Amino acid sequence: MFSLFANTIAKSVVLLRFYTYFWLMIKRILYKNILERLKTKKAIILLGPRQVGKTTMLKGFIKKKEDTLWLNADHQDVRELFNQPSSIEFQKTFANSKTVIIDEAQQIPNIGRKLKLITDELPDIQLIVTGSSAFELANKVNEPLTGRKWEFQLFPISFQEMINHHGILEEKRLLNHRLIYGYYPEVVTANGNEKELLKQLSDSYLYKDILIWNKINKSEMLTKLLQLLAFQVGSQVSYNELGKTLGLDNETIESYIQLLEYSFIVFRLGSFNRNLRTELKKSRKIYFYDNGIRNALIANFQQANLRNDIGALWENFLVSERMKFNAYNNRWVNRYFWRTKAQQEVDYLEETDGQLHAFEFKWNTSKNVKITKAFTNAYPNAITKIISPNNYVEFVAQ
After folding, report:
1. What angle do CA 191, 301, 24 make, to 5 degrees?
2. Average pLDDT along the chain
3. pTM of the predicted model, to two decimals?
């Protein structure tokens, strides 16, 4: 009996190793983009939420382990190394290293000036820096590293990356699954454990940095705010209504939402207005970077075909995947939604090189839908399109 049990365990371990190896082969589009910039010797700044795969991807750049110094700023002794830095101390510390990687660098006070010291005094070292907060890292390195850095953002795995990995047919088959569980790397590889992993992600990473950086004592308030935002995906968001529900003023609501944006949990779309007095001018929609996190916050993992919020899930999926697509393909666009006081609306707009593109998102393909005439009359030169499960691939992938 023991022998049989041992054999079963051994086979399970082998199988686990096989699946782990298989899934680690998912190639991130950003890898090639960063690899091309390494030749310039400028610092590489890699932003993105925790658990999105930054560390795993960076390990691919390490050709010789002995030439690379990896520093995790989540550790106290690493932060102490940067307390009173000098070029002499850095030369000693980095003496045998060709590449220095500083992980979660937002934890180091005044990180921008210290990175500038390294790039100025040790130009032969390739510096790679990661951070899970755009507020704590990007805002503090922009001025000190002007002209000395390349900045990238890594998202949860994209639809395009999964197509590249196992083909378009397989990924299209998984569409309903992605709408519910999203694209976080651990979740993509979960094989039946998605709910537990998403609960851990939403419980831990959401507040790990936010509460420290800004000394917010009421994590339950952030949770309630996120839950309210989760129920309003695809709808116009009112700071005043959110404030009344939570007992907070508008300024506090806006500052909390900014923190959630800086931590890559949610992002905003502003309203487009050019021609009509009836167009809403200061409205916004708020989306989640990942559908799975959104569903975890409201504790709803019901199947897609049974959901009454499938329209919101579809819209969040398309907008977030379009954002990844634009970023990874270096497409510079302005993004909006459009709405009038009479509730006429277009889900999503892009403006690039002076051309306006308008998109309406529809999950139910049995209904004949058109872009509202109020918009096409106001903007007759805009290119319009309905995005449904029949044609979404061209919208989110090449």
Report:
1. 30
2. 85
3. 0.87
Q: Are strands 355-361 and 345-352 parallel, antiparallel or unpaired?
A: antiparallel
Token digits of residue 154: 């890594």
To the nearest 5 percent, what fractions of the chain are helix, strand and coil?
Answer: 50, 15, 35
**Cα distance between residue 53 and residue 55, in whole Å:** 6
What token pair was written down for 176?
């309903």
- Residues sharing a CB contact under 8 Å with residue 24, sequence separation 6 or more, in sequence order: 56
SS3 322: helix
Contact 298, 225 (CB under 8 A): no
Task: Tell me the two tokens of residue 56.
Answer: 């795993």
Query: pLDDT at position 8, please?
Result: 38
pLDDT value at position 345? 93
Distance CA 138, CA 38 (A): 19
Q: What confidence tens digit (pLDDT) does each residue in 193-209 have?
A: 999 999 988 876 666 66
Q: What pLDDT shows up at residue 149?
A: 85
Q: Could you tell me the two tokens for 213?
A: 């950086």
Instruction: Yes or no: say if 45 and 138 are a contact pair by the CB < 8 Å rule.
Output: yes
Q: Per residue in 19-41, pLDDT tens? A: 343 445 789 999 998 988 887 77
Determine the residue type at 354: G
pLDDT at position 169 over 90: yes
Looking at residues 274-290, what average pLDDT do you find? 81
Residue owning tokens 């699954």: 177
Beta-strand ranges (E) seen in the chain are: 43-47, 68-72, 99-103, 126-131, 149-153, 266-271, 284-288, 334-339, 345-352, 355-361, 383-387
Return phi, psi of residue 154, to 5°. Answer: -100, 130
Task: Tokens 């782990």: give the residue.
Answer: 20
Domains defined for the chain, CATH in brackets: 29-153 (3.40.50.300), 159-396 (no CATH)
Rounded to 5 degrees, what angle do the CA atoms 385, 386, 387 make?
115
The answer to whether 236 and 285 are in contact (CB under 8 A) is yes
Longest dimension (CA), the chain: 79
Whole-number Å distance between alpha carbons of 96 and 342? 66
Tell me the two tokens of residue 391.
């044609």
Alpha-helical segments (H) within 167-290: 168-173, 175-181, 185-188, 194-208, 210-214, 219-231, 239-246, 250-262
Mean pLDDT of 68-92: 87
